[in-house]
Amino acid sequence: MAKVEFRRVRKDFDGQVVIPALDLRVQDGEFMVLLGPSGCGKSTLLRLLAGLESVSAGEIVIDGRVVNDLSPQARNVAMVFQNYALYPHMRVRDNLAFPLRMRGMKRAEIERRVREAAGVLGLEALLDRRPGELSGGQRQRVAMGRAIVREPAVFLMDEPLSNLDARLRVQIRTEIAALQKRLGTTTLYVTHDQVEAMTLGQRVAVMEAGRVQQVDDPLTLYREPANRFVAGFLGNPPMNIFPVRARTRDGRHQLQLAGQWLDLGEAPPGKACFAGIRPEDFGLPAKADDVTLTVQVEALESLGHETLVYFRDAEVPSPALCAGRVTGDPAGRPGDALCLAVDLSGVHWFDAAGDALRAGRSD
C-alpha cells in the first residue's frame, strides 16, 4: 500500500495544456474515483501516474518518493485497462503469470501468486482456457488477476467496466469493491459513470477541463456540491438550475420559477445568481399547504416505481429542459398542465461564477 500525491502536475500535448496545475492526495489504502466527462483529463492523469506519459511540470509522489523519472516497471503500480489487454494465444494461467515471468521471479513463487489470485477471483476452473473461450466478465477478472499477482503498491483502473452489459457491470462493480476492501491496496479508478463513482469510491474527485472541481465522499458531493458543474454532473437527471428572480412580499421571501412566485423559507444569499433544485424535490401534491408549481409537460418517462416529468422554464431565454421525479404514475401526457409540489427547503444557491453559497449569507 502507498500514499499517492500529485503536486502541481501539468501536462501539455503539442503545446495544448490538458492538465494546467493539479494537486491531489490519495491516502494509503484509499479507493479514490476520478469522475468527469470525456476529455476532462482523468485517464491522462492515470497514465501519468503509471509512467505511460511524462509530466510537463510538477511532481508525482508514490509512498514519499518522487517517481517522475522512474520507468513504469519501477513504480510498483498495476493498471487494468478498458480493453483487458490479454494475450489471446495464452491460457489464463499464462496470462496471469506473464508479468511475473518478465520480472524473472522463481517458478514456485509465480505458481503461488497465480493460485492465490485465481482463488480470489474465482478463476480456478478457467486456468487452462484461452481469452477467446471466456465471457466478458471472465476476461475482466483475468485482467484484474494479472494486476493482483504483481502485488503492487497502487492499482490503477481505467474504465474497466465500460465494455460490459448493464447487469454484468453491477456484478463486477460489487466484486471490485469487495476485492479492494479485502486487499486494502491504494486504488485510483477512472470513470465517467456517476453510479460507479457513487458506489465504489471512498472519495471521489470530480474533474472538468483538467482541473479538480471537488474532492469528497460521494454523499457530500451530492448533498453539498461546491459549484454548478459538480451539481449538474452528479444526479440523473441532473440538478435543475434556474436564474434567481427573488422578491419579498408581505414579509414572505419568494422565488420565481416558470413565471410563478413560490414562497421560500428564508431569503437567498445576497450574491445568489442561480438556484439549483434536484428532481426529487418535485413531487405530486399531497397536503393542502404544499408549495406548488404548475408546469406544461414536455415528456413523461415511466420507470414503474416513479415517473420523470420533463418541463421547461419559459421565463428563461432558450429554456433548458427541467426534470421532476415523482412517485407513481401522474395522470397526463405531453402538452398537459401538471401541478407539482416543490420542496424549497433544500435549494442550492450559486453566485455568478457558479460557486456554491449558503442561504442567509451574503459573502
From TrEMBL:
Keywords: ATP-binding, Nucleotide-binding, Transport. Pfam families: ABC_tran, TOBE_2. GO terms for molecular function: ABC-type transporter activity; ATP binding; ATP hydrolysis activity. CDD domains: ABC_MalK_N. Residues 4-234 form the ABC transporter domain. One of its GO terms (cellular component) is ATP-binding cassette (ABC) transporter complex, substrate-binding subunit-containing. GO terms for biological process: carbohydrate transport. This is Sugar ABC transporter ATP-binding protein. It comes from Thioalkalivibrio denitrificans. The lineage of its organism: Bacteria, Pseudomonadati, Pseudomonadota, Gammaproteobacteria, Chromatiales.
